[in-house]
Amino acid sequence: MQTRLKLLRTILVVVVLALGISISDAAEHIAGHWEGHIEIPGQPLAVKVDLAVKDTDWSGTIDIPAQSAEDLPLSDIHIEEEGAEVNVKFSIRGVPGNPTFDGQLENEVISGRFTQGVATFSFRLSREVVAGPVRPQEPKPPFPYQIEEVGFQNGAVSLAGTLTIPPGTGPFPAVLLISGSGLQDRDETVFGHKPFWVLADHLSRAGIAVLRIDDPGIGESTPHPKPPTTADFATDVEAGVAFLRQDNRVGAVGLIGHSEGGLVASIVASRQNDVDFVVLMAGPGVPGAELLLKQNERIFDAMGITGERKQDLLTLVNQLFAILTSDMAEDEMRQRVDEIVRQQFEINGVPREQHDETQVQAAVEQALNPWMRYFLAFDPRPALTAIKVPVLALNGELDVQVDVDQNLTAIAAALEKGGNRKVTVHRLPNHNHLFQHAKTGLVNEYATIEETISPEVLDLIRDWVLSVTQ
C-alpha cells in the first residue's frame, strides 16, 4: 500500500530568471517543450515540461506519464548566466522533499542534478520525444460488455465512477473496487499502470459487473468536507454498495479492496448485511503502526540500509508512532514530531544547519495528518473476526509495503477466530504489492515492469468470485 509514504511521486517545477541574457534569448533557448528522464537507478522516470514566457513572466506545466500526472503547474522559474554557462534551476512548491532540479543548458540539453529530500539523481531534458511506458494489458475496444458512467451520493460527497456490466438482463454478480492509500482515480492509476481498469475488464468479460469510482477529491468525485480517514472511506463504500443494490441487473454484491482498500472492505463487510463476499488484495491484518514499522524495515533491508543506521532509523519510527497514537497535547506533539524529523535527516546525512525548513515542515504535516493518526491506531482484527461471508485473501511474497508473513497470517487467524470457514488464502511467490511478477518488490520496480497485474492473479480472483456466486 502506498501508506502515505508516497511512492516517490516526483512532481517538478521549472524556474527561470534571466541574469546576463536577454528575455528574448532566454525565450529562444528555454521556452517550449522539453522531454527527458530523472535517472533513478533501475527506474528512469520520464518527464515532459512545457515552458512559456509573456513579457518577463514565465509559466509552465509538467507531465509525468508513468504516474498519469498531466499539466501540473510550474512555479519559481530561475535562469542565471555565468560566463558561457546558462544555469537552470527547477523546484516544486509544497511537495514533500522539495523536489529540485539544478542543471545547465548546453547544446539544447538541460542536464544536472535532481534532489528530493536526501535522495540525489541526475536528470536530462532535451527537445527529443520520449517513448511512453509500455502497458500491454491496458484494455482496448471493442468491449463485450456495457460501460456506464455513474454517480451517487454519500452525504455531502458526490462520487463518480464507471460501471462495467455484462450484456443481458442478469442478475450478475457485482464487485466494488476499493483503492489503496492516497487519493486514487477510478483506475487506481499508479506509475502508468491502471490496475483497476485491467481487473474490471477481466471480470466483466467473465460475466461479473464491476463498479470502480474516483476517490473523493479526485477526478469527478468531490472531496469530504474535512480531511478524511479510513472511517470516512468506509462510508463511501457503503454508499457504493447501496447504489449497486438498487440496480435490478445486479445479484450478489462483493468488495475487492487493495492495500488500505482491504482495510476498508473489512470494516464494511463486518457491519453490512448487504455484502456477500470479500477479496483482500494485500490487505492489512495488524494495526497500522505495526504494519508501517515492518514496512520500513523491509524497505531498509531491500535498499541495503543496515547496521547502526537501520536501527537508529527504526528507533525513530517507533518513537514517532508512539507520539502520534498518544493523547499528547497538540503543541507538544508537533514539537516532538519536528525533532524526530530533524533527527531522521541527520541520520540520513543532512547536517542540522543544512535542513530545508520547507522539507521539514512538509514531513511534520504529513505525520500529523488525521488519516495517518487514525491509520496508525486502527486494529483491523476485530472487524475481520466479525466477517461471516466468503473471503479470498491474497498477498505477494515480495510485497515490501504489506508484509505477507505479518499480515496474511493475522488475517487468516482473525477470520478463523470468528468462526469463518469460507476462507481462501494465497501466498504468491515473486509477486509485489501491485501483484506484478517482480524481482525485488521495491517501489522503484513498479514503473519498469510492463505487466500491470499477473494473469494468474486475474484468473484466481475471477474463478473464486464465480465459485462463490453461482
Name of the level-1 CATH class of the largest domain: Alpha Beta
Task: Please report the distance between the alpha carbons of the first and last residues.
Answer: 31 Å
Determine the structural class based on helices, strands and strand pairing. alpha/beta
User: How much helical structure, as a percent, in the residues?
Assistant: 25-40%
CATH third-level topology of the largest domain = Rossmann fold
The number of helical elements comes to 12
Summed up:
It is built from twelve helices and 17 strands. The chain is an alpha/beta fold and 470 residues long. Strands 4-3-2-1-9-8-7-6-5 form a nine-stranded antiparallel β-sheet.
Task: Outline the structure in words.
This protein is an alpha/beta fold and 470 residues long. It folds into three domains: 23-126, Beta Barrel (Lipocalin), CATH 2.40.128; 146-286 and 379-469, Alpha/Beta hydrolase fold, catalytic domain (Rossmann fold), CATH 3.40.50; 288-376, no CATH class. 32% of the residues lie in helices and 26% in strands. The strands form two sheets. Strands 4-3-2-1-9-8-7-6-5 form a nine-stranded antiparallel sheet. It has an eight-stranded mixed sheet with strand order 10-11-13-12-14-15-16-17, with helices on both faces.
